[in-house]
């Protein structure tokens, strides 16, 4: 795939990402204004927990499937039959659903609203497995318009319904909102599965029964290294908001939740670029074209744009929070500043991780994420009880810097190996 096609694919995915993230920020702002900080903190903590588990349900095999297809796009083949890979993915989704359901069941003893949300939202993990399979096929064959549609179109629809519900009924209880949100989550995912398989049939992709080049145990064993980074990606988001709610208070959790959407706007281009870059770099490696130079350029570009974004956050932080979230969260400005520094170092992974996955070095990512998780596990109980949400983002800053250093060292190691080859 040429660079012009990579650019066009990134633009298509960026448009979808802007729509999705814009809807997410708008709905978070509505909820922050409508609900009291205590209820808002409950809602966002449960949402963060359920969303983190989706990363486990939807990765691993899809990443390996994307890599396998992109390495051999000329033949338009997949290495495993649809039924076998989809069956295994659904099993992973069911395990993630059970985990979220059990957490929700335990959570109900102390927080009935958040527990109810998790228990209902857990159902969404199973259909998401089918969406993840479809996305892997679309990404591998570089059907980025379809990928953008299925990756981002569900978010504005389900969040808009919740936003209208919450905004129109200001007296609505948090329990009702969580129930409505979770059910919409499930219904829209079912609709997305139906549309995804319609397009698979239309493209003739779901008629492919595998090449027989890879046995099922071998294919699944090769997928496990790609599952490990997905689990490690999920661990820190799973910990942050619930940890603040548990170790400090729901109000502190609400302060953190109020600033998170602004940080999520930062990688609007990085995430689509990462999605499009992964199959591109796999194709280049399969053709014997060196891709390390592209990675170093991407790291430099992210460093420059991150600096500009950090300056904007420092300058406009107070105004952004007051306009979107309301003056009751104006004390969260220092949290936003520290979180922006943490995000600065975290966003380099959107250039480095696709390169490592394409090279078959996903375990390098896992090492960096394990270090990040260990820092959080050790320092959260120390700093959060004393400093609340500010202590949480300070820990994230330390952890992200450590993971960034490990990633850069891995890239330099590969660079030296290529130079001596």
TrEMBL record:
GO CC aspect terms: plasma membrane
Pfam families per UniProt: Polysacc_synt
Membrane topology: Multi-pass membrane protein
Keyword Zinc-finger: no
Keyword Lipid biosynthesis (UniProt): no
Subcellular location: Cell membrane
InterPro entries (alphabetical): Poly_Biosynth_Transport, Polysacc_synth
Residue stretches spanning the membrane: 12-35, 47-65, 86-107, 113-138, 183-200, 226-247, 259-278, 299-317, 329-348, 360-381, 387-406
Keywords: Cell membrane, Membrane, Transmembrane, Transmembrane helix
Record's protein name: Polysaccharide biosynthesis protein C-terminal domain-containing protein
